[in-house]
Write a structure and sequence with these properties.
The structure is a single chain. The protein is mainly alpha-helical and 298 residues long. The chain contains 17 helices and no strands. It is globular and about 60 Å long. 32% of the residues are buried.
């Protein structure tokens, strides 16, 4: 088949695809610094949620999205550069795309089984059937930032541009631990904003540590999706969905009366267990036609 010619089975040795660690890790660190620095190139007295700040940061991250692929193009080993296009190793290909959109979304929704059940019971889901909700959302800069621009720019930068370089140096299980650390550290820039807003240092450090923890955990999951599927779409839809759901509101569940509280807590646990059990199966590389050079090691 012609597809087998385009994506032949992996037969490369580690020497064929190897990049020195100082190059791959150094490039990823540089990309992360550029991403965070781009958010602060604008002088402004407004906070991060002000419309002018959001618009300027949209421009900044889109410029970074133009710069970051240059690292992939310039630093990829000769074997990889001759075998694949830059866009293929960054996860932009049509083969398996529909699967890469649907299955990671189902998998992530399984993890949120508990919060979704709460949403169904309190009737909040009904607003999604209202056309005006989506019209107003598309005009809301904060909604666009949280649900579209942030997932798009962060997954493009921290997954699509960094992982193809790291996977030329490290085994997949090692590579998927490096970008989440950079991803988590990149979110610590909120410390400066919280201190500027007058938040006490103790609260700032507590919130920032918690944010670093859960963004790193999500980063591992997101990197896993990218490596297993070979698609940018997989971590993007998972990221957008997680941003939409937010961190689970456990106190709300605990304040419920029985038997509702027991049912919700059971669904929380069921969702986590189901996600763990389904994770390796629903990310089987063959389902996504993932024949990229690292797929044989996942």
């Amino acid at each position: 088949m012609e597809q087998d010619v385009e994506f032949p089975p992996v037969d490369a040795s580690s020497e064929d695809v190897h990049l020195p660690a100082v190059i791959s890790v150094g490039a990823c660190f540089t990309i992360a610094v550029i991403y965070v620095a781009s958010l602060y190139v604008w002088k402004s007295k407004h906070d991060r949620d002000h419309p002018s700040t959001i618009k300027r940061r949209f421009c900044s991250v889109f410029v970074v999205m133009l710069i970051a692929p240059i690292f992939v193009w310039a630093l990829s080993s000769d074997f990889v550069a001759h075998r694949y296009t830059m866009w293929q190793i960054m996860g932009f290909r049509l083969e398996g795309l529909v699967t890469a959109i649907m299955l990671p979304l189902v998998l992530t929704a399984t993890l949120f089984c508990g919060p979704l059940s709460v949403t169904l019971c309190n009737g909040l889901w009904r607003i999604y059937s209202e056309p005006m909700y989506w019209v107003q959302a598309a005009q809301n800069l904060m909604w666009l930032r949280n649900h579209l621009v942030a997932p798009l720019s962060e997954e493009f930068t921290f997954r699509a541009c960094m992982l193809p370089l790291l996977l030329q140096t490290f085994r997949p299980h090692t590579a998927m631990l490096i970008t989440p650390l950079l991803f988590g550290l990149a979110h610590l820039h909120h410390i400066k904003e919280r201190l500027r807003d007058g938040t006490p240092l103790r609260i700032v450090l507590t919130v920032s540590f918690f944010q670093f923890f859960y963004t790193t955990i999500f980063g591992i999951y997101s990197a896993y999706l990218f490596i297993r599927t070979g698609h940018f779409a997989a971590p993007f839809v998972a990221h957008a969905f997680c941003n939409h759901m937010g961190f689970p509101d456990v106190p709300e569940v605990l304040n419920q009366t029985n038997p509702r509280k027991a049912i919700f807590l059971s669904l929380y646990v069921l969702g986590l267990v189901g996600w763990i059990l389904l994770l390796p199966t629903l990310t089987t590389p063959g389902w996504y036609e993932n024949n990229l050079f690292w797929s044989g090691d996942t």
